[in-house]
Each structure stands twice: as C-alpha cells, then as structure tokens.
TrEMBL record:
Gene3D superfamilies: P-loop containing nucleotide triphosphate hydrolases. NCBIfam families: eps_fam. Residues 48-180 form the AAA domain. It comes from Paenibacillus yonginensis. This is AAA domain-containing protein. It holds the Pfam family AAA_31.
Amino acid sequence: MLRLNDSLVSERNPASAAAESVRSLRVYIRQHLQSAGKDSTVLMLTSANEGEGKTLLVANLAVSFAQEGKRVCVIDANLRKPALHLAFGLNNGGNGLSDYLRGACEAEAAIRPSSIPDLDVITAGAAPWNPAELLSGERTEQLLAHLKQQYEIVLLDSAGVLGCIDARVLASQADGAVLVVRYGRTKRTAVSKAKQYMDQAGVPLLGIAMNQVK
C-alpha cells in the first residue's frame, strides 16, 4: 500500500533528484501554458498501459505546482483501478468522481482538501459499471469548466490508453496530455499506438515523461 511519506517525494524530500525531475516537468508545462496564453488548464497524464508509475507522477506534479503557489485540483479519473487516494493518504469512500458523474452529489461535495496547502483532491469514488459512458457525459464537461474557474491547474490521472477506451474518451475534455513511459518496460510499439490514439482524440500531446530512469 502506498503511503503519503513514501510516495510524495516532492513534499517529503524536495531536494532529491526525483523531486527535481518533477520540477523540470512542471516548468516545461508552465512554459507551454504561458506561450498558449492560458490562465488555467486541464492536463491529463496517461500511459500506454497500467503499472508505469503514472499515478505517483501525477501526485508529485500536483504537489510541485502547489509548492509554486498555484491552486491545484488533482482528479483520479481511473475509475477502474483507482490509486490516487493512496498517494495522499485518503480513503476512496464517500463522494468521488463517479458519484458526481452519476448525479449522486454536486462538485463541491466531491472535492477534498489534502494536507498540502492549495492542493485539493477528487478521488475516484465507487467503481461504476460504465466508466467510459460516465466520462463522456455532459457532467464531465461541466465539472472541468467549474474547476477551471476555481483552480489554475487541474490534473487528471487517467487509465492506460491501450487497456480500455476511458482515457481516449477523457482526452477530448483536456487541454493537453502527457504520456508517461516506464524506462526499460514500455515497448516502443505501445508508445506509438498510445500517441496515435491521443492524436485521434484531438488532444495536444505536450510530451513524453520517462519514468524509473536510473
């Protein structure tokens, strides 16, 4: 089980090489946003497959943006295999993204504060039988529009692109995407296929983040 102090190096050990790598990604994204003239953005982090370290990178990137003074909301949009709540030491009970999307609660009821200033979390919530349908519905668009009025950075932790259609559906709602690749594990053909799906969804691919590089 992931623990807050074990996983969030940006918060626990900001002088580490891992935290510096996250800051480099943060600066790259911020420069892209500035060049695009955007005050707020929805950014999706995804991977070709599950198990490539995407969730911990999303969590640490959220912490890094908050440390910079940005108002950040990070969302666990991996409704099939949620894990973001573990990184922040939260439970997945109560209202979450799936509960909002199916109309069981409103947005404010799903937003939870983290232990880090300026950083809020929306957990995945109860596992639905129809995640792709929920993510493609109007309430997803409404939620993201609402959050962009309150936060400068909205980060989406999505499912892997190749395992199911969820990430491809969600990509159309994002302003940009970063593809997380695990060094020495992710095959080049998988990366190419994932990029193809992102292109088809019409989301700008801001870059590829290499994870687990020694």
